[in-house]
Design a protein that fits this description.
Radius of gyration: 31 Å
GO molecular function, one term: metal ion binding
Shape: globular
CATH class of one domain: Mainly Alpha
Pfam family, one: Toprim
CATH superfamily of one domain: Topoisomerase I, domain 2
EC number: 5.6.2.1
CATH architecture of one domain: Orthogonal Bundle
Keywords: DNA-binding, Isomerase, Magnesium, Metal-binding, Topoisomerase
Number of helices: 22
Catalytic activity: ATP-independent breakage of single-stranded DNA, followed by passage and rejoining
Structural class: alpha+beta
Number of strands: 26
């Protein structure tokens, strides 16, 4: 009897898989399925809890690597090893036992390179070898799609290549992060720097993009420019127009006025020389990838990219939308067919009604050749009832409606508008006026209406005829050149995707275009959150600005490959080759080692140009937070990735994590725990659901949850 064990990435995913079949038994660590046509002998679904397994820390290899010292660099282990992530031992042991008992193991983690990494890293650490491995590859958690996926499991040849790609990326990022962070921080400390820098292959060039915009704004010098503006008064209303001159020198503008014998603020007669009207059609927007949805949601509701991804993940787990971490804007004919079948139901869900202009697939949206692993984000076949829709949060409702509207828009008519250009001559000086008038809303009626100010910008012009005489009054208009605006978070996502446009090297531009810039669709929002957490950037009123700490980082990495997207371009290009079987993980890791050696030689010089600034952080790194609760000699200090006792050399082993159940533990929380042995009730811990609890120190000076304490 064949025993099949299926590994999901997280409990919610396992639950969605199990609900597509008949459940026999549920336990804390697995779900047992009853035998059926798909699983004649039944099957067992178990899960990770995010990453069950992580790369070992430097001190796990050598105790001396725990201390940040220049003479210990570079830190490059002979072999990179994994360990069970903190707090996840019990689930790992359950997975290991099930893998040992299995005849066939199925990787049912997320369908991307990180899902492959999670599965094979766990498998490798369990020590289980020689068993057949299958891969579940689906884009939706709907019951039909889950059943279809399990009935057509794939072999794991592609999965193994993706694992090699992901592991090469993970190891190289570890090497750059560990070595570069220590290297730059320790050199800066010699100049009096009192904090630390976190440096990463993708996060650092992202900060540098924001720094470049900061420099553009800072160095911008506003300059006046002059134009001739006319206010025209026909019988049907009024309109403005500009002469075709735009000069920094006011005298040149005045000279043009003099040439045509014109003076400011005097009344003249103008002639409408030409009225040019063009009817224009605008097709509906392309279907959403993750980044286009993040941009729209940031512009419309000021949602952060991270907020959009979290909301999408919830909708995905509720089986309302397809796989969220996609960079594709197309669907195949299979998805198009089910969308057509559900067209009326989707309209009811969005509370709209229209007659489709066509039910035939259009290459603008439906193109199998453009779909690789994942297709665009669209609604699933599961159309929610009004009751289910009313149960969605405001964010979920807004994002779901945006996806629904964009999907329905491909069946709607074009948005049609009339663009009018009027050429008005005053004593032979031509003035140009442009306006826009809506003719037919078409697909636009599916979306929220733009603000009144936006509509006012595109005001319609009055109705005038060729040869018509109009009253005219002119003035020389003075304006100032405007500095570039700071990026919004939505624009930052686009900048990360298109940063190749800022680069000089043609080859690098092409590579970045191919790999779509910095980071991947799945990681860009977390990169932005990381550089926020590191206090390199601040976001106020949706505008991204760089901090003094961020400026210092950029001054330190300026001129190195860490400041340039080109390194990421080359890395991502080679990583893709590993994923397709054309590249080697070993070669990639070796090249990263060479890069770090080069960085060690260049860094002392690059640090010379850095001006040490106060980072505004409340505590200096390594400054005492509280007396150690265990020993009488040491103090608890911030040790960068954890809190620990300063008397560790004398044998005190007390350490506290920086994060517990998804919540960051602050200096104040640690101080309270050390001094009072317990905290008040704190919000924001994450398990299967978000929960609140107090924290307490047990007899072994370990942090425990204290659910008994009332808020």
């Amino acid at each position: 009897m064949t025993k099949m064990v299926i590994l999901a990435e997280k409990p919610s995913q396992a639950k969605a898989y199990a609900e597509a079949f008949t459940i026999q038994e549920k336990s804390k660590t697995y779900i047992q399925l009853k035998p059926d046509d798909t699983f004649p002998n039944g099957a067992t679904i178990t899960w990770g809890v995010g990453h069950l397994v992580e790369l070992k820390e430097p001190h796990d290899y050598k105790p001396e690597w725990k201390r940040w010292k220049l003479d210990q660099l570079p830190i490059v282990p002979e072999r990179f090893l994994e360990k069970v992530s903190k707090g996840k031992w019990e689930q790992f042991q359950a997975v290991k036992k099930l893998f040992q008992q299995a005849d066939v193991i199925v990787n049912a983690a997320d369908v991307d390179r990180e899902g492959s990494n999670i599965f094979y890293s766990i498998l490798r650490l369990t020590g289980v070898k020689g068993k057949p491995i299958k891969r579940l590859w689906i884009n939706s958690l709907e019951k039909d799609e889950v059943r279809k996926g399990f009935n057509s499991l794939q072999d794991n040849s592609k999965d193994l290549r993706l694992f090699d790609e992901a592991k090469a990326r993970q190891i190289s990022d570890w090497m750059v992060g560990i070595n570069a962070s220590r290297l730059f921080t320790l050199h800066l400390k010699k100049k009096g720097f009192e904090s630390y820098l976190s440096i990463g292959r993708v996060q650092s060039p992202t900060v540098y993009l924001i720094y470049q915009r900061h420099k553009e704004i800072e160095n911008f010098k506003p300059e006046p420019f002059y134009q001739i503006e006319g206010l025209f008064q026909p019988e049907s209303g009024s309109y403005k127009g500009l002469a075709e001159i735009k000069e920094k020198d006011k005298a040149k503008v005045q000279a043009l006025m003099d040439k045509h014998r014109l003076k400011e603020k005097e009344d003249y007669k103008g002639i409408v020389q030409k009225v040019d009207k063009k009817t224009k059609h605008q097709k509906s927007p392309k279907l959403h990838s993750l980044s286009t949805l993040q941009s729209v949601a940031n512009r419309r509701w000021k949602y952060t990219p991270s907020q959009v991804l979290k909301t999408l993940q919830k909708l995905y787990e509720k089986r309302l939308v397809t796989y969220p971490r996609t960079d594709c804007n197309f669907i195949t004919e299979n998805e198009f067919a089910y969308v057509v079948n559900n067209l009326n139901k989707y309209q009811e869900a969005l509370n709209v009604s229209f007659t489709p202009t066509s039910l035939e697939p259009n290459k603008r949206y439906v193109n199998s050749s453009k779909v690789q692993e994942h297709y665009a984000i669209i609604p699933t076949k599961s159309v929610p009832t009004q009751k289910k829709l009313s149960g969605l949060s405001r964010e979920e409702s807004n994002i779901y409606n945006e996806i629904l509207a964009t999907t329905l828009a491909m069946f709607h008519s074009d948005y049609v508008y009339e663009e009018t250009t009027i050429f008005t001559h005053v004593q032979d000086l031509p003035f140009k006026s442009t306006g826009k008038r809506d003719v037919k809303q078409g697909w636009k009626e599916l979306f929220p209406k733009p603000s009144k100010s936006k509509q006012k910008e595109e005001a319609d012009l009055p109705n005038v005829q060729n040869g018509e005489q109009v009253g005219a009054r002119l003035h020389i208009k003075e304006s100032m050149t405007q500095p570039p605006k700071p990026y919004t978070e939505g624009q930052l996502i686009n900048m990360m995707k298109t940063c190749g446009k800022l680069m000089d090297d043609v080859e690098d531009v092409e590579i970045l275009k191919e790999v779509e810039g910095l980071g991947t669709e799945a990681t860009r929002s977390s990169i932005i959150e990381t550089i926020k957490a590191q206090k390199y950037i601040e976001v106020k009123r949706n505008n991204v600005s760089i901090t003094d700490k961020g400026i210092m980082l950029c001054e330190a990495i300026e001129g190195t490959l860490l400041s340039s997207p080109s390194m990421t371009a080359k890395w991502e290009s080679y990583l893709k080759k590993i994923g397709s079987g054309e590249g080697s993980k070993q070669v990639f890791i070796k090249q990263t080692s060479q890069f770090i050696e080069k960085l060690m030689q260049e860094t002392p010089d690059s640090i010379e140009q850095v001006n040490i600034r106060s980072t505004g952080e409340k505590k200096k790194w390594n400054e005492p937070i509280a007396k150690c609760p265990a020993c009488s000699t040491g103090s608890i200090t911030d040790r960068y990735k954890f809190y620990g006792c300063s008397a560790y050399k004398e044998g005190c082993k007390v350490t506290f994590p920086k994060k517990l159940a998804g919540k960051t533990l602050t200096n104040n929380m640690i101080k309270t725990l050390c001094e009072k042995k317990r905290t008040k009730v704190l919000k924001g811990f994450k398990g299967k659901k978000t929960f609140s609890t107090a924290l307490m120190l047990d007899q072994d000076y370990k942090i425990k949850f204290d659910f008994k304490q009332k808020a």
